[in-house]
């Protein structure tokens, strides 16, 4: 790992797109778990940009199938601008969420950057959920269930139009790993889009090693690898601090192997850490686990390999 790399921590303290309050406290929980210091100890230069500002969560019911659409758009435009600036300066942006709707802003920024640099984008979506819902398919209207759909152009103009290109991405840039909860209407949308999904059954059948080999198969030196890490990717027995727990997720060792194999590519160039909800956590253990896994993403391993 090149020791001169600089990472930028960007806090986005909002639960505007979620169905539970509390993800707004995620950035501070990650800082309390010493994310910056731990990455610094790995030889990275760490800049903490503090927290972005945005509208408060009005906690209203959905309108026309979307909850808090205008507020979600404001937050995502702020995220887009901040992530874009760090990428243009040659740094590795790490978005500290906040809920997963914020990935619309971060990944649209990464996609714009890849077009500027003529690089290939690969997004690894580590999550219990496919997040490919639409206003018609969603039971709740919570936009944290829609970011992949919005990034692929399937959503309201306020969200699909963030960035310099609409749609920002297409389904073929995504590899979804750890999926185990997909709404009924959403299943059809995922299938029609041709999304590459490595669900928990796939991981059970072939193992995490083979799954990650498949997900990373054509990552090369011209690939910008973006990781969107929803903490509910992990089994709730080891990571209770999320608002939307789904049993049967990756174990600690499976998650470590996943992160170490991503690090082995040497292509990690941007990262979201989202849906950490300290209100549901026990003594910040989920934040500490997330930091531990992010260290592995940046090259920590048991032995020098």
From TrEMBL:
Keywords: Arginine metabolism, Hydrolase, Manganese, Metal-binding. SUPFAM superfamilies: Arginase/deacetylase (SSF52768). It catalyses: L-arginine + H2O = urea + L-ornithine. Pathway: Nitrogen metabolism; urea cycle; L-ornithine and urea from L-arginine: step 1/1. Binds 2 manganese ions per subunit. GO terms for molecular function: arginase activity. InterPro entries: Arginase (IPR014033), Ureohydrolase (IPR006035), Ureohydrolase_dom_sf (IPR023696), Ureohydrolase_Mn_BS (IPR020855). Its EC number is 3.5.3.1. PROSITE patterns: ARGINASE_1 (PS01053), ARGINASE_2 (PS51409). Transmembrane segments: none annotated. Pfam families: Arginase (PF00491). Its cofactor is Mn(2+). Belongs to the arginase family. This is Arginase. The gene is rocF.
């Amino acid at each position: 790992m090149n020791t001169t790399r600089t990472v930028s921590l960007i806090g986005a303290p909002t639960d505007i797109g979620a169905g539970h309050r509390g993800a707004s406290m995620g950035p501070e929980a990650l800082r309390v778990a010493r994310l910056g210091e731990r990455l610094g100890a790995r030889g990275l230069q760490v800049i903490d940009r503090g927290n972005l500002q945005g509208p408060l969560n009005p906690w209203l019911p959905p309108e026309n199938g979307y909850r808090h659409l205008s507020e979600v758009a404001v937050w995502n435009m702020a995220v887009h601008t901040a992530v874009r600036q760090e990428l243009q300066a040659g740094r590795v942006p790490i978005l500290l969420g906040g809920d997963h709707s914020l990935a619309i802003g971060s990944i649209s920024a990464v996609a714009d950057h890849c077009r500027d640099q003529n690089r290939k984008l690969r997004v690894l979506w580590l999550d219990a959920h496919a997040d490919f819902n639409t206003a018609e398919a969603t039971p709740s209207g919570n936009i944290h269930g829609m970011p992949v759909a919005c990034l692929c152009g399937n959503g309201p103009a306020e969200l699909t139009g963030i960035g310099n290109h609409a749609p920002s991405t297409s389904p073929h840039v995504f590899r979804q790993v750890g999926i185990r909860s997909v709404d009924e209407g959403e299943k059809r949308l995922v299938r029609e889009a041709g999304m590459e999904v490595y669900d928990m059954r796939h991981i059970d059948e072939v193992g995490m090693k083979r799954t990650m080999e498949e997900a990373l198969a054509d990552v090369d030196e011209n690939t910008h690898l973006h990781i969107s890490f929803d903490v509910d990717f992990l089994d709730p027995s080891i990571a209770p601090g999320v608002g939307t727990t789904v049993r049967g997720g990756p174990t600690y060792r499976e998650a470590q192997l996943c992160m170490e194999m991503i690090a082995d590519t040497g292509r990690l160039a941007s990262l979201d850490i989202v849906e950490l909800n300290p209100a549901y956590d026990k003594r910040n253990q989920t934040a500490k686990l997330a930091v531990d896994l992010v260290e592995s993403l940046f090259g920590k391993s048991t032995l020098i390999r």
